[in-house]
Each structure stands twice: as C-alpha cells, then as structure tokens.
C-alpha cells in the first residue's frame, strides 16, 4: 500500500466519528425543527393566539373594529367590509400587541 493511500485511509477513519456525530445531532434536532415549523400553522388553524408577554390565550373570533370604521363579528384576520388584513391584535389581558404571522393569513 502506498503511503498516500494509507494517509487518505487514516483521514477517512478519523472523519467517520465526525460524520456520525453530525448525523446523530441532526436526528436529535429533527423533532424540534419540525415542531418549530408546525407551531405557526397550529396557531393559525387554532381558535386563539398566545400573548408573548403574559401568555394569555386571545381568541381570534369575536367583535373587531377595523381602521375603515367597520365593526364586525368574525375572525380578526380580515375585515369583512374592506378586506384589510390585521397584522396584530391587543392582548385582552395585558394590552400588549400580539403580532399575527402574515404568512399564515389566507
Ligand atoms: Zn398579554
Ligand atoms: Zn375594514
């Protein structure tokens, strides 16, 4: 066996644990990555959004007042009169603005 081939073999053997560690790390992270991707969709499909400040659940269905002057019952995501899309709502408990993820709006 040539010395160069022996060196390449040694390097490959030394890098195998690194590949194995990277694969294990990827497998460990995978559930958390998937959960992070799914969470916004569950928020959008759910009946409420959680306030990041006080952690209260705020229903997205109710009575809303739009900047166009309309007051309507329904989802806060879109005004039924002018079809403007809401980007945030006030938390009913603490008043902090709860941002609605615009990527999830219909
Ligand atoms: Zn709050
Ligand atoms: Zn409106």
Description:
This protein has 106 residues and is α+β, with helices and mostly antiparallel strands. Helix content is 41%, strand content 21%. It has 2 domains: 1-45; 47-104, no CATH class. It has one helix at residues 3-45; strands spanning 48-50, 57-59, 61-65, 71-75, 88-90, 97-99. The strands form 3 sheets. Strands 1-2 form a two-stranded antiparallel sheet. A hairpin with a 6-residue loop joins strand 1 (48-50) and strand 2. The longest helix is centred in the first third of the chain and has 43 residues, at 3-45. The model has no long low-confidence stretch (mean pLDDT 85). It binds zinc ion (2 copies). One zinc ion is lined by residues 66, 68, 70, 79, 81-82, 84.
Short description:
This protein is of the alpha+beta class. 41% of the residues lie in helices and 21% in strands.
Total of DSSP H or I helical runs spanning 4+ residues: 1
Task: Return the average pLDDT rounded to an integer.
Answer: 85
Give start-end ranges of low-pLDDT stretches: none
Radius of gyration from the alpha-carbon trace, in angstroms: 25 Å
Number of domains: 2
Please provide the count of β strands. 6
SSE run: HEEEEEE
Instruction: List cofactors, ions and other ligands.
Output: zinc ion
Percent in strands: 15-25%
- Class by alpha and beta content: alpha+beta
The shape is rod-shaped
Strand order of the biggest β-sheet: 1-2
The largest β sheet comes out as: 2 strands, antiparallel
Detail the topology: elements first, then pairings.
Layout: H1 3-45, E1 48-50, E2 57-59, E3 61-65, E4 71-75, E5 88-90, E6 97-99
Antiparallel strand pairs: 1-2, 3-4, 5-6
The structure holds zinc ion (ZN) (2 copies).
The site of one zinc ion has 7 residues, from loops.
């Amino acid at each position: 066996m040539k010395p160069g081939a022996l060196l390449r073999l040694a390097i490959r053997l030394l890098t195998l644990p690194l590949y194995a560690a990277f694969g294990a790390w990827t497998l460990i992270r995978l559930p958390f990555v998937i959960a992070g991707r799914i969470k916004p969709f569950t928020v959008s499909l759910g009946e409420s959004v959680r306030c990041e400040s006080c952690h209260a659940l705020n229903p997205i269905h109710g009575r809303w007042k739009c900047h166009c002057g309309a007051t309507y019952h329904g989802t806060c995501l879109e005004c039924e009169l002018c079809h403007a899309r809401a980007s945030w709502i006030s938390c009913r408990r603490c008043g902090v603005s709860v941002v609605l993820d615009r990527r999830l709006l219909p």
